[in-house]
Amino acid sequence: MGYNLMRKTIGFHDRYHIIFWHCI
Questions:
Q1: DSSP 3-20
Q2: How far apart are CA 8 and CA 18, in angstroms?
Q3: In angstroms, rounded to a whole number, what is the distance separating the alpha carbons of residues 13 and 7?
C-alpha cells in the first residue's frame, strides 16, 4: 500500500513538473 501511494505521488509530481516547465 505504501509503495503504491509513493508511486502515485511521484507520478503526480512528474506531471506537475512537466506542466511547470511548459508554463516557462
A1: HHHHHHHHHHHHHHHHHH
A2: 16
A3: 10
